[in-house]
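User: Fold this; tokens only.

Assistant: Input:
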Amino acid sequence: MREIAPSILSADPLLLEEQVHLIEKDASILHIDIMDGHFVPNLTFGPHFVRALKKRFPSLTLDVHLMVDRPEIMIDWYLDAGSDWISFHIEANPHHHRYLMKIKEAGRKAGLALNPTTSLCLLEPALPYVDFVLLLTVNPGFGGQKFISEGLKKINSLKEMREKGGYDFLIEVDGGIKRENIKKIFEAGTDVAVAGSAVFEGNPLENLLALKEASK
């Protein structure tokens, strides 16, 4: 599986509906970063916004990434809003199994997210329960940052853990993905590449198609 998930963090907020409409037929997953101003130094979208997106773009899988201090408070909000995938940070809550199962029992895909310097060892006990793992390859909070090159080794290590354990979770990668590095990122073991500024700076459709071509 090789999917590119446009991240609306980099979209123009005044043209967001128009920009998402341009890529709707060529993207199946839309990535939505939820930031609380505490876990990361930024504020973004609430559940009402996600609900509106689901109503307007029902064919898109809404991939909600909770970059928040207390995800356990917000999971129900975003389930009710229509999120299809929900990930929360392994660094933000110790009760991983409880909340992964809550998401899965609601019929959605459940994921854990890791910051760039968080060890994969912390993730290993949760691997039987995740539908996907989101590896950040920039420091979370802002779009347009440079890919941290050590991320390639981490992606490959997670792929090896998946193969060794016989798991079938997806590997999602977010941060600094551009035309010049997307092929290497997929070759390292990525299934879903999240791209923000590389899609939404300029013409979103042209950029998305160029990323797809560069990933081959």
